[in-house]
Amino acid sequence: MIDHYNAAHVTKLEQELFEQRARLAGVERTLQTIVTKAATDSKRNATDKIDARMCRLDNIGRGDLKERDWRIFPGQIAYPRLSIRTPSLGLASLRAGEST
71-99 pLDDT, tens per residue? Predict the structure, then answer.
């Protein structure tokens, strides 16, 4: 089920990445003829979105955990749980949908 979601998410991200690259190419053509504030902002936005989608694609493909994976962001449901696997008992977060 997770692999199916990841495959669908990768497809969506690749489509968005293609759209943003096409947008960036169009804006760069416009900037070659005339420099406008709208075109400059559009180039910045397209570049930022391309970087964000590339980062998401890299995160889906990686298998190791990083420090940022343990953060809980606003709007996410996280339940505290007691960890018995470690020698010292302590609280750890259990994100919604995560099994122990």
Answer: 666 666 666 655 556 555 555 555 544 44
| CB-based contact 42:27 (threshold 8 Å) | yes
3-class DSSP string for 22-72: HHHHHHHHHHHHCCCHHHHHHHHHHHHHHHHHHHHHHHHHCCCCCHHHHCC
Q: In angstroms, how far apart are the furthest CA atoms of the chain? A: 66
The three-state secondary structure class of 8 is helix
Measured CA distances, 85 to 54, 66, 88 (Å):
35, 20, 8
